[in-house]
Amino acid sequence: MPTGSTPLEQYELGQLKLTAVLESASEPKAIVENQAGKGFTAKKGMKIGVNGGEIIEIHPDRLVILEKTVDFTGETKTKTL
Question: What is the pTM of this model?
């Protein structure tokens, strides 16, 4: 498994599942589980996934994640997942 600076950066996005969203007045938080059922708290601005994705929005049914990748020509591309 790749190493990241946070536990959520050690997983491919496909290995993680959104299990709950905690609504609050200040900012919503999400509970994300790995394939073994271990839960992690995630919030807007956190890094997630092995490709350096960042959580930019938290909705009741999904997370919006922005990933920046560099293609074979050296051009930086952004992808919203």
Answer: 0.83
